[in-house]
Amino acid sequence: MWPHGQFHARMFRIVFLGAVLALATVVRAQIKVGDPFPSLPAAGLDGAIPDMQGKVLLVDFWASWCGPCRTSFPAYGRIHANLATRGLAIVAVSVDKDPAAYAAFVKRMAPPFLTARDTGQNLVRKVQVPEMPTSYLIGRDGRVRYIHKGFHGGRTESELRGEIARLLDEKTNPQP
Asked: I want to staple 2 with a disulfide (CB 3.0 to 4.6 A). Which of 6, 126, 137, 153 is the partner?
């Protein structure tokens, strides 16, 4: 039988290690450049998500209460109009919990690209989105190539256009 002090110390270590392991399974690392992006069809989003395999994909996380999100939608609309025929797909994922707020925003903005709502906050939690809006530019290989935190008007739109053009060109001219 263990002396009283050793028993408590051993129990503390067991409980502490158990807590650390439990926390490690809950806390996930933020998605970063080079990581595979989670499957959108498997994310449980509210809205039908077609297969995007082989496309360059811009996934934007937004919310109806986010001021920069209102600015980003017209820019994404212009980018979509110019580059969708070359293989770009845009999916704007709302983190709104209120379906009426989501619907009102989408009605007011009338985006020409796909929108969906992350009703269970599953995808936003898996990706660990740092702020609203944040967009992830994903190559044809399904890996994150660029991340934009926030939306900074013309500067962000210009950066996205250049990055998207490079990714679209990789189809015929792969980069090392």
From this structure: 6
Structure-token pair, residue 155: 């500067």
Name the average pLDDT for the chain. 86
Type of residue numbered 94: S
Using one digit for the tens of pLDDT, what is the confidence trace for 142-164?
A: 999 999 999 999 999 999 999 99
Residue 113 CA to residue 118 CA, distance in Å, equals 16
Query: Which residues, listed in sequence order, are joined to residue 117 by a DSSP beta bridge?
Result: 46, 94
**Of 113, 120, 124, 119, nearest in space to 37 by CA:** 124
Q: Which two tokens stand for residue 157?
A: 């739109």
pTM of the model: 0.81
46 phi/psi in degrees, rounded to 5: -85, 100
> pLDDT per residue over 40-49, tens digit each?
998 989 988 8
Contact 92, 62 (CB under 8 A): yes
